[in-house]
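One record is kept unedited as follows:
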Amino acid sequence: MFANSFWVGVCAFASVTLAMLVLIDFGLYVGARYRERYLEEAKTELDDILIQLPANRMLDLSVTLSAIGSIITVVITSTYSGSMSWGFGIFLALIIGVALFPVPRVILRLLRRQRLIKFNIQLEDALGMLSSSLKAGFSINQALEKVAEQDIHPIALEFRLLMQELQLGVPMDQALDNMSRRIGSDDFELVATAIITARQTGGELTETLERVAALIRERGRISAKIRALTAMGRLQAIMIGAMPFLLLIGMYQISPGMMDSFMNSAMGIIALIGVIVLVVAGFFTIRKITNVEV
């Protein structure tokens, strides 16, 4: 009997060990793949806004911010809630850590979006400058160089990169296509397509640029009107997303004992997870509805 129980224990120990090794190996594989993808996407986003920062520094910043947020969460909750269980504290710290991890990437995307908006606003004036230069008898390369010489950022910097590619021998069509993919602007994609088409067909480039400028101006007017009409919906998404958490803070102030009992129970934690999932889903659903493409 002792021998049987011994071998049963050995088999159980071996099974658990093998299962843990498989899980650890799978976790390391997933972590390595995620790290590779994170670094690749972060490098692209940093290059898009011309920030000279290694991509691995962004990963270090995300991990550091997540760790600091988790530690501060545990300290604050343990200070203001004396009856808080360690399980709930760790759970809340994990939630805060996961929420803070993508913050540097989100800031990068916001900076890229603001840069793109500024570029689109300046593009109309740049097209007018290109059209005037062509009417004065300049070539397309000289007209592009005139825009690059202006002290208007970020559009002048992008045109300087375009001129550098042209000076290195890159064909005009390829250089414009590279600039369009680098910026990611639908408006500039129209400009690049118009210039490439006019060069290939021998059309009047000056009139083409003027028509494209008028089209961009009209698109900007419609986009501004749509943003004004959907502003209330975006505000509602923020208010609805924040309301459950503000209610949670208010209940803690009114009845901390009841909320401690709720948070220290398994059903309370499950309910909190469900609320977070539903709030996030509702927030992004409302944002999707109010995000109208022109």
Q: What stands out?
A: The chain has a mean pLDDT of 79.
